[in-house]
Amino acid sequence: MHNAASFFGLTINFAVFVLLSFAGMNILVANMVGILVAFAVRYLLSSQVVWINERDN
User: Fold this and answer.
1) Distances (CA, A) of 51 to 9, 23, 26, 54, 56
2) Of 30, 29, 33, which Cα lies nearest the Cα of 18?
3) How far apart are CA 19 and CA 32, in angstroms?
4) Measured on CA atoms in the order 9, 19, 32, 27, is the torsion positive or negative?
5) Sequence-separated (6 or more) residues with CB below 8 Å from residue 37
6) Tell me: the pLDDT tens digits for 6-55?
């Protein structure tokens, strides 16, 4: 499940980067925003799905 969350984070990062860069944002800023959004999504996904069994113990 961890690999799926990582791949989902990569997909989110790339999608945000492409959308923002095509919208005219500087590519460095668009990349940083994509990284931050992907980090937040992956953190939430990991805390809710990947590590769910660790909290139950």
Assistant:
1) 16, 36, 36, 5, 9
2) 30
3) 13
4) positive
5) 12, 13, 16
6) 888 899 999 999 999 999 999 999 999 999 999 999 998 888 877 776 65
Sequence-ordered alpha helix ranges (H) in 1-57: 2-22, 27-45, 52-56
Q: What's the residue count for the chain?
A: 57
The boundaries of the domain holding residue 37 are: 2-56
- Does pTM top 0.70 for this prediction? yes
Tell which phi-psi region holds residue 24, choosing left (phi > 0), alpha (psi between -120 and 50) or beta: left
Query: How many domains, in total, are found in the chain?
Result: 1
Look-up of token digits 């997909």: 11
